[in-house]
Amino acid sequence: MASGIDAGLIWMDGTLVPQEEATVSVLTHALHYGTSVFEGIRAYPTADGAAVFRLREHAERLLQSARILGMPTMPTASEVEHAVVETIKANGRSDCYIRPLLWFGPESLGVGPQNNEVHFMVATWSWGTYLGDEAVKSGARVITSSWRRSPPDVLPTKAKVGGNYVNSVLANMEARAQGYDEAILLDHQGFVAEGSGENLFVIRDGVLFPVVHSVNLRGITRDSVMQIAEANGMTVRESAMTRDELYTADELFMVGTAAEVTPISEVDRRAIGSGQAGPITLQLREAYLAAVHGRDERFADWLTPAQ
Ligand code: PPE
Questions:
Q1: Cα Rg of the chain, angstroms
Q2: Which entry of 24, 137, 213, 237 is 20 to 30 Å from 30 by CA?
Q3: Any atom of ligand 1 within 6 Å of the Cβ of 210
Q4: In this structure, what are the phi and psi dihedrals at residue 123, rounded to the nearest 5 degrees?
Q5: Nearest to residue 283, comparing CAs of 196, 224, 222, 225?
Q6: CA 71 centroid distance within chain
């Protein structure tokens, strides 16, 4: 089966196998009902070789997602970390995206997964800028989606469950079909939630406002950027936001493992600030990239060697 992704060796239930052999049955429960949980992690080259960024936090969030979905068995956080490091080592890549996935298998079909086994894989591949090099340089052009973020009594929004991501897929497809880079989702009352795969930050009068909403994923990049900004002397104030407050921001940016720190230059055809990537945003992007590449000693604890 041809894939445009070159993942090399993939960790499948305890062994490393070539990508072509890392396959599942079409009767896989997760394929029919979205009953998988996943993580997105990155490894970066550092002066001491490949290092995984905030591996423990990602492993723990994966297991929290599994617990939320009610998976009866799962690896331990240390087993997840081991699998990630072994997969990176086996492929000899120092710069890669890492996708651990737990899913209900093909042992039975029907909505209830009581008789389905939980499987575990880790794949790694090269993944450059998430929204394109142009978005990083000049700022992403985004729209407010007509799709709303699911409320927490409909889907467990704190969990990275496969099925939840249909919401993100629809929002992202809508934005791309209209020629934009990404979609921002509001909640059912109109408050800003997050991007289809990113958390949002506003800058106003030199103050950093991480957008807060109870339906958002507890982003690890968001937490990292907040800590970096504080360590660099910025005032950081988590804040709920409305759509109009985005329009009048001095600067706006998105963060995520895949997106890293991506400036936003336009929302709903309105220029943000100067209509370019904001200067403070670009400084924070550089500071984030310094931390993930091991060039900032203050954040050395965030790196796990993988070589
Ligand atoms: N919100 C959502 C909905 C989300 O999917 C992500 C990550 C974030 C916020 C940021 O979380 P964190 O990575 O912990 O900072 N999105 C992942 C999936 C991207 C994809 O296309 O797949 C990611 O960035 O890896």
A1: 19
A2: 213
A3: no
A4: -120, 150
A5: 225
A6: 21
Residue nearest to atom 6 of ligand 1 (CA): 197
Q: What angle do CA 124, 128, 131 make, to 5 degrees?
A: 120
- Residue 143 CA to residue 150 CA, distance in Å, equals 18
CA 201 to ligand 1 center in whole angstroms: 14
**How many angstroms separate the alpha carbon of residue 107 from the centre of ligand 1?**
30
Ligand 1 site, residue 217, Cβ cutoff 6 A: yes
Query: Cα(160) to centroid of ligand 1, in Å?
Result: 9
Task: Respond yes or no: is residue 158 known to be catalytic.
Answer: no
CA distances to 48, 59, 60, 82, 112 from 77, in Å = 24, 5, 6, 9, 26
Per-residue pLDDT of the chain (307 residues; tens, 9 = 90+): 578 999 999 999 999 999 999 999 999 999 999 999 999 999 999 999 999 999 999 999 999 999 999 999 999 999 999 999 999 999 999 999 999 999 999 999 999 999 999 999 999 999 988 998 989 999 999 999 999 999 999 999 999 999 999 999 999 999 999 999 999 999 999 999 999 999 999 999 999 999 999 999 999 999 999 999 999 999 999 999 999 999 999 999 999 999 999 999 999 999 999 999 999 999 999 999 999 999 999 999 999 999 8
With contact defined as beta carbons under 8 Å apart, do 163 and 200 qualify? no
Evaluate: CB of 9 within 6 angstroms of ligand 1: no
CA pair distance 159, 238, nearest whole angstrom? 21
- Closest ligand 1 atom to residue 259 Cα is 24
- Please tell me if the CB atom of residue 100 comes closer than 6 angstroms to any atom of ligand 1: no
Look up residue 199 and give its two tokens: 């958390």
- Cα 10 to its chain centre, rounded Å, is 20
Pocket of ligand 1 contains residue 187 by CB under 6 Å: no
